[in-house]
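Bench notes, afternoon.
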Amino acid sequence: MSAGRMKVLLVAESERDVRRLQSVSAARGGGHFELTHVRSLADAMRELAGDRFDAVLLDLAERSDPVARVDALEPLVKLREGAPDVPIIVLTGVDDETIGVRALKAGAQDSLVKGMLDGHLLFRAIRYAIERHQLQMALRAMSLVDDLTGLYNRRGFLTLARQQLKIADRMRKRVSHIFVDLDGLKAINDSFGHREGDLALIETADLLKETFRESDIIARIGGDEFVVLAMENVGPNGGAEVWTTRLQENLLLRNARMDRRFPLSVSMGIAYYDPDFPINLEDLLDRADKTMYEQKRNKRLSPPLGVAARE
């Protein structure tokens, strides 16, 4: 958002309301608004996909009659799903206080009565909505991210992974779930100190970011436990081969070029989500975790350091 100037998408069917809002925004003076108008939800989604907006004004008054009231919030819900980073202010009629309250509970930043608007009130409401939304996004990001590694934490992973599995169901695509454990973290801490252990965790996170794609969900969900959720088109054997090979190659390269007092080692387990045979996320985590521990049991300890190494 440029200083003092806001780019706002107005979603409204009534041309009369549109003209009035345009007049109200112009009355604020100084070119504070750049208002883009669309009539339908579909058009709004296309605009949001193709351009960047600071806020959305969504007119719900046309849907506030008793027959349509059941679905009155549907546009709000769909806009929030399609553009979660854009704050939404709903516009209602004079007698629509109930739907305004419901809209706030459903995630709207504010609810304004169209007949009571002036330029100053509209300008202030939009600016405050933007500021509140940015603060909420920042706080949400902080609560979903692991402080040490910068990856998602357990809460962030579970939140995003559930959304990803819903997408997999719709697209009928298999998803690889990879459980990665940093071997011998306790031995590293005991032998070289917790600072060295933290650096090993950070390097493991970097290894995973280097191995997997930006579109994959990578998280640290425990002390030495990492998980990755990756949308795939390949079968189970091919998927396991691809990820294992890529991770091992990157790990060997890192151990060869890093000046470290111990070899970095990880264990990995893979489970698959198949839309034709769906399971819940917790069961998927458990399957990958068990596969990882099977690999860990097949490793031998390195005598000098007590850090697990690959055979």
